[in-house]
User: Fold this.
Amino acid sequence: VNAVAPVVVAQSFLALLRAGTNPRIVNISSGAGSLTRKTGGGEYSYAASKAALNMFTRVLAGNMRGEGITAVMISPGWVKTDMGGPNARLAPAESARGLLSVIDGLTPADSGRFLSYDGSELPW
Assistant:
């Protein structure tokens, strides 16, 4: 679900994206999907699914670049939710504001990037 479903959804909406102005595909990833940052243990399936989503999105970005469709992965950060827990450092509203700001500022030059909610580049 984390890896393949977003790609299938994006492919299903390609006709609409092609007809749009400044079309963007934004897949929600996670720092857990960074091979560079993954130096310890944890949940195999979640980390692997997010790493796979990142690669699928990177390939999708390459395939769509010639059509002017921007595709990126973005991490919402460590958010105080049921999943993130009470010790997470971001309130949901802060993460959402950052996500919207980054998404609004995307250009075709950003296609294929792995970004954080604050616009910083995340390592692969």
About this structure: The beta strands are 24-28, 70-75, 114-116.
